[in-house]
């Protein structure tokens, strides 16, 4: 596409000609590198392996089995077509009642049924992206700002800022305490913003964390609630990984909703509390674009519902998911099995990285690890981090995301996703990292790494009794 001429740019808006979307980030550059040279075990065995995409594909077989057993859940099947006309013509932005009730029940289930949600407060949006933007439109004006603990999801720079005109103020969290959010860090960021005459309207937390894969404990959440109440600012709690939790009996996640309903000894104005949720991660449905706003503020619910008409969830999707989420036996089994598979995959990745001296922040949620490569940097700088990242992308042929794209204050951390691929791709990724680290140590440099794998040699390597990786049935089934 040719660059726009001066005359063309004068005809367009600032949004159209600006770069506020944030695509000029290493986070998105890694995706582009994968798209230009995608790994395939047969067609392109030396291609880039995608470990920069936070998707959970480990339980798609369970969903497929349910769909085969419940064909009437879709209006596009012979069993469900009888409801086609009614569903296809439904356009109330309150949503199908059976859908909002099912989502409210599922939100409670992913939080251990320790808290309940009112279906009348469920507001739909086009994924968590749309939910965040609508929430910000309801809470702030252009030029206002939100505090956001670092490291944080790079997409927030787009979701919260691009069209709203709102700014983000980092709250610096450090590795010395495993990036835990503290009252001191909140106060420092808030006071600095005040000195710069920036109006803080709210605090956005991500719990469970992307990219850390950790959850906030009750004491931290109590601190957060006390802080926003004292400052009279809003709290937006992104909980899109609430059901993507493993280990510790699956009860290691505490929702902000539990705190404000159970902790009666701390003051809390419920009008300041808002939850963003989605089915993209917990159910593995990013393409369905199901985003949820759950606010305890009536005015926000009313405004968000009106604004949701710009990004509603299709009634066909609502109809299908209402049936699925109301199947208690399926949901119970799905959540339990998802946790088991995530824990297993997490363990395989961390053990494999540990064998070559690579450590990760201990975590029990999400679909990624926060990998520590500080010892591989030529020097402690973000420039050195980018140099290392380019080697990993271009020569090791793995797309991982550098910590600087998550606004991490310390160079050398990387997010690595592990649930968007099969066992074979994960094992090959570990093999490449092993070669990278061992060759790098021998040569004291990071160039000319030999990582060539033909599909035949790949099969031989993975099926060898000397392979350091557990055997996968997917490897045996490959033809």
Automatic annotation (TrEMBL):
Class of this enzyme: lyase
Gene Ontology annotations of biological process type: ethylene biosynthetic process; fruit ripening
Keywords of this entry: Coiled coil, Ethylene biosynthesis, Fruit ripening, Lyase, Pyridoxal phosphate, S-adenosyl-L-methionine
Catalytic reaction(s) noted: S-adenosyl-L-methionine = 1-aminocyclopropane-1-carboxylate + S-methyl-5'-thioadenosine + H(+)
Coiled-coil annotated residue ranges, if any: 176-203
Cofactor(s) it depends on: pyridoxal 5'-phosphate
Pathway participation: Alkene biosynthesis; ethylene biosynthesis via S-adenosyl-L-methionine; ethylene from S-adenosyl-L-methionine: step 1/2
Membrane spanning residue stretches: none
SUPFAM superfamilies (UniProt xref): PLP-dependent transferases (SSF53383)
Domain of life the protein comes from: Eukaryota
GO molecular function terms listed in the Swiss-Prot or TrEMBL record: 1-aminocyclopropane-1-carboxylate synthase activity; pyridoxal phosphate binding; transaminase activity
SUBUNIT field: Homodimer.
Family: Belongs to the class-I pyridoxal-phosphate-dependent aminotransferase family.
Protein name, entry field: 1-aminocyclopropane-1-carboxylate synthase
